[in-house]
Amino acid sequence: MKIAVISDVHANLPALEAVTDHLQAWRPDHVIVAGDLVNRGPRSLECLNFAQDKARAAGWRLLLGNHEEYVMRHAEPDAPRSGPAFEIRRASYFTYCQLGRDMRPLAALPFSLSLDSPDGSEARFTHASMRGTRDGVYRRAPDAEVLLQVGPPRPGDRPPSLFCVGHTHMPFVRCVQDTLVVNAGSVGMPFDGDTRAAYAQLIWRNGAWSAEIIRLAYDLERADRDYEETGFLEQGGPLARLMRIELRTAHSQLYQWAQQFEAPVLAGGMTMEESVEAFLEM
User: Fold this and answer.
1) Which residue segment(s) compose the domain that 170 sits in?
2) 138 in the same domain as 13
3) Which of 30, 51, 118, 273 has the most CB atoms lying inside 10 A of its own CB?
4) How far apart (Å, rounded) are the C-alpha atoms in residues 264 and 279?
5) pLDDT tens digits for 223-257?
6) C-alpha span between 275 and 21 (Å, rounded)
């Protein structure tokens, strides 16, 4: 049994295409897209259409991520259309408009997926952890914490033999008691200093799961140009500049910006443009 898990594409079509080409040669039994297919990048509609086509033709399974949730919030009746809170979320509003304001495909995405391993044990997949789409699993987290993130076993079953996630953009493989815990990393925006796309190959052999993180070079220059050619850099607000830096450097920027500047912007103490300029000067 072979399973490919791709996660955190973040609207990076060239990276998604490169991983898909690699999958065609490897020929997994299942392909799981573990959330954050869209947003935080320029080609959400193309990536969503691409993955939906693969779901229909090749059985790909698509899961919900926190960035799908961010986009869906723009469809809520009280979603802001101006002011600091809206400006912070302007990039996801760009995605919302790019998707034609039709949130049904995102709303239909399941939170998690369970498959039976060849020995009958559970293989469990979700975006971040079973506690939520923003609750990331990290390589050095204590075992007790990770077990809470894996969640309880199915009724009458043993703990999952495999638990695979994304969200942190930091790939790893580790064993926690009887569970192989895998973070597939990010296809479109890694944060480990390596700009190559990452995905996980999971193989059942000799009665147990094994995992390998695959890294693939892709047309990064084309992905970078997409920020301008789609209008994302201009229409996605000042944070789109930081997202482009994340793409180019494979290092997180938005989290650090939020820690320093989100509260002052929301309080009206500085504009988004001022906050991003201040952040880049640090």
Assistant:
1) 2-216
2) yes
3) 51
4) 12
5) 999 999 999 999 999 999 999 999 999 999 999 99
6) 40
